[in-house]
């Protein structure tokens, strides 16, 4: 288990910019950067060739950090155990199974828009970070449990926030962000985890006593439990994994996309033209989504600049070598989509927001690991298909009905961690482009 050393937090002004610092070290030292972190020696590999070697090498396993939340669930496990879990849970994420969620995703998004419409004034103020997080949480809970009350979503959102904050702070130690001295942190974390467990137990019991629902993550797990293939604890671990892995990441991708659109009105208008032409008056269907090519490019480019999982950490199980550099057993290996997505050999003018980079004509021949928001290799994100259905539906409906403006200077620097976050939320204003249809 990784054990960080605690330090007193420096003043906010002195707060380091760890991702910016990583980029600086890469500029100075090249594609392989070695440094000492609060968890011991770290090797950061920035070149896509090295990313590929590492994700394909079973010597580089996950660290134990996530286990305190997700137990031995898919996101934290490795080796043979991981393999059998992945085999069990892959089928519910097949494209054909996911398409059935489209009306639910549209319904949840329209619910959020109706809440916004009920706010006072012509220009409504919302925190886009909080709103997208709540929406994606509702969606993953409905994917898992079908029916969930707004009160359950609220309680889960509050508890998940505490847990994610705690995990984020612990994982930031890899980048030498000092851990804040906070005696209440552990107590708050334990209480929040207790709330998540109680909610998951209640919701799972409802599914297990519900009438004959088959397929889907939870029914698949319950069936396996009935056959004695998995334990109660394993069912819990996989469900908590899906909740933790499956909402904040997508929310962050959506929030940064809206931020970039707000900063680039030309792109926003071009996207609105595409959506108005393809969506009006339809609701999103898979056929309509396949015609939203510009939206897909915008979303891909937003995840290039702000990959929701900004770094992935592995631990070497035995002495090894990558790119001619020796890695001793126990050393940490870091891959950062945030830095590789800015590699100047693979991306011209890398800081510029340019959705056209993802036009098929310009993507042809690009290194597979120059862009890896969902990683790759054996641990490639299980939820990628869901994200690429969910995010376009949400963005299409938001673009169709509202214009989101995020004021200049209101969004802080991105913070590293398991999921890229921002310091101060995303205060935004929302103007309705057209009235919502009656319920
Ligand atoms: C934009 C949204 C998302 C991004 C950028 C993302 C990214 C990633 C990344 C980088 C990993 C590899 C982590 C590692 O190995 O250390 C991963 C794994 C995983 N993700 Fe996602 N994810 C997203 C959404 C989702 C959703 C919606 C789900 C829903 C169920 C999900 C479920 C998982 C699971 C279960 C794994 C572990 C896969 C395995 O090791 O077999 N993710 N994701």
Automatic annotation (TrEMBL):
Entry's Gene Ontology molecular function annotations: heme binding; iron ion binding; monooxygenase activity; oxidoreductase activity, acting on paired donors, with incorporation or reduction of molecular oxygen
Stored InterPro entries: Cyt_P450, Cyt_P450_E_grp-I, Cyt_P450_sf, Cytochrome_P450_Monoox
Keyword tags: Heme, Iron, Metal-binding, Monooxygenase, Oxidoreductase
Organism of this sequence: Roseimicrobium gellanilyticum
Binding site for heme: 381
Domain of life: Bacteria
Keyword Iron set for record: yes
Protein's UniProt name: Cytochrome P450
Keyword Metal-binding: yes
SUPFAM superfamilies: Cytochrome P450 (SSF48264)
Family: Belongs to the cytochrome P450 family.
Cofactor (UniProt): heme
Pfam families, per the entry: p450 (PF00067)
């Amino acid at each position: 288990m990784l054990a960080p050393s605690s330090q007193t937090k420096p003043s906010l002004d002195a707060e380091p910019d760890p991702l910016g610092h990583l980029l600086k070290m890469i500029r100075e030292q090249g594609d392989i950067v070695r440094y000492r972190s609060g968890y011991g020696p770290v090797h950061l590999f920035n070149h896509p060739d090295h990313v590929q070697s590492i994700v394909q090498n079973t010597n580089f396993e996950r660290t134990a950090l996530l286990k305190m939340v997700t137990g031995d669930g898919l996101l934290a496990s490795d080796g043979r155990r991981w393999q059998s879990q992945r085999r069990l849970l892959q089928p519910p994420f097949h494209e054909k199974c996911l398409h059935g969620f489209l009306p639910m995703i549209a319904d949840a998004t329209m619910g959020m828009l109706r809440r916004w419409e009920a706010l006072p004034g012509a220009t409504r103020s919302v925190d886009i970070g909080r709103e997208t997080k709540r929406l994606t949480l509702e969606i993953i809970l409905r994917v898992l449990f079908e029916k969930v009350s707004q009160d359950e979503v609220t309680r889960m959102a509050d508890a998940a926030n505490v847990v994610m904050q705690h995990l984020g702070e612990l994982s930031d130690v890899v980048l030498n962000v000092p851990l804040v001295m906070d005696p209440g942190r552990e107590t708050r974390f334990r209480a929040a985890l207790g709330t998540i467990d109680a909610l998951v137990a209640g919701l799972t019991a409802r599914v297990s006593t519900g009438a004959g629902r088959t397929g889907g993550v939870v029914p698949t797990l319950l069936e396996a439990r009935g056959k004695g293939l998995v334990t109660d604890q394993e069912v819990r671990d996989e469900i908590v994994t899906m909740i933790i892995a499956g909402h904040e990441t997508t929310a962050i991708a959506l929030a940064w996309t809206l931020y970039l659109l707000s900063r680039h009105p030309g792109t926003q208008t071009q996207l609105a033209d595409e959506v108005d032409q393809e969506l009006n008056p339809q609701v999103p269907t898979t056929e309509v989504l396949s015609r939203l090519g510009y939206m897909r490019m915008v979303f891909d480019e937003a995840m290039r600049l702000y990959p929701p999982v900004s770094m992935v950490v592995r631990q070497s199980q035995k002495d090894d070598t990558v790119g001619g550099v020796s890695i001793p057993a126990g050393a940490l290996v870091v891959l950062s989509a945030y830095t590789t997505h800015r590699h100047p050999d693979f991306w011209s003018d890398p800081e510029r927001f340019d959705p056209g980079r993802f036009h098929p004509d310009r993507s042809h021949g690009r290194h597979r690991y120059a862009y890896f928001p969902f990683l790759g290799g054996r641990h490639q994100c299980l939820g990628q298909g869901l994200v690429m259905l969910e995010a376009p539906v949400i963005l299409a409906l938001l673009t169709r009905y509202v214009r989101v403006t995020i004021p200049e200077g209101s969004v802080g620097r991105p913070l590293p961690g398991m999921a890229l976050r921002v310091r101060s939320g995303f205060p935004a204003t929302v103007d309705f482009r057209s009235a919502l249809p009656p319920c």
